[in-house]
Amino acid sequence: MNRSKIVAIITGVFSLILAIAYLLLVQILDFRGEMKPAPTSGIEEPVSIVTSTSTNN
């Protein structure tokens, strides 16, 4: 086999491994159940301070 065929085969195998790993990861994450947002009760609201300065001559 020439070099380009070997590179193509290695690339294809690598691509299949990545695809299978991605599908497994998605299945594992999906198996965990419904995603719930993080609780916000302990988070304080940020304070915004707006100042305006104008210089009219």
Structure write-up:
Keywords: Membrane, Transmembrane, Transmembrane helix. It comes from Fischerella thermalis JSC-11. The chain crosses the membrane at residues 6-26. This is Glucose-inhibited division protein A. The chain has 57 residues and is mostly helical. The chain has a domain at 1-34. Helix content is 51%, strand content 0%. The protein contains one helix and no strands. The protein has one helix spanning 3-31. The radius of gyration is 27 Å and the shape is elongated. The termini are far apart.
Number of strands: 0
Discrete helix count: 1
Task: Note the main sheet.
Answer: none
Overall mean confidence score, pLDDT: 85
Strand/helix succession: H
What portion of the residues fall into strands of 2 or more residues? under 5%
Distance between the termini: 82 Å
Q: Point out poorly predicted stretches.
A: none
Helix- and strand-based class?
A: mainly alpha
**Radius of gyration from the alpha-carbon trace, in angstroms:** 27 Å
Helix content: 40-55%
The dominant shape is: elongated
